[in-house]
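Box 3.1 — From sequence to structure: Porin
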Amino acid sequence: MGGIMVGIQPVSGWSLGVQRVMIWGGGAAGGESLSEIMQAFINPAKAQSTGFNAGTRVVAKQEASVTSDFIFPGPEPFSVYFEYAANDTSMGRSYLFGKPDISAGIDFAHLGPFDLTYEFNSWSPTWYVHGATNVQTGYQYGITNDYQSIGNWFGDQRVLATASTFADQVGGQSNMLRVGWTPPFGGYLQLRLRELANEAQTEF
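Predicted structure (token representation):
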């Protein structure tokens, strides 16, 4: 497994970032050369469809995301953040994201003695579970490590059909509200409320 992250700050208070994570080898998907792995990083659409050599079923599996965070200054400063992530590509185009996960939130660091965060998440139902195809051989459960998800935080809530087989695609949405309080006598108290809906989501 390997990855890369690049971030910039175009102006004070605004940051942009891009991330890529790629997993390769293992079981039925093993045997790739270093050249094929590098090609998969450069051309992920071909890597996940036809491969680069005759008889190649798949070369690597990838995730990517674009993030943005903007801090609004003022007497009560706050930040707005956003992430658009993808599991593989879409429509055979390396620049199009497939199976998306969208996250957005607003964070108030100081509202008197309180701090407040609201966050929204929406993720595709096929983010982790895939049927056995010529593309998904060796990566039927997405990017995982010992069945623990790397990517969407809700992926580890999948239902196990057997000890080693996932049965739940866990697409859905989440709304989260977090309130923190620093009382005058010291310490810190936090309340977190989350609404989850993961039964009727459709792929974007």
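Summary of the box: The longest helix spans residues 34-42.
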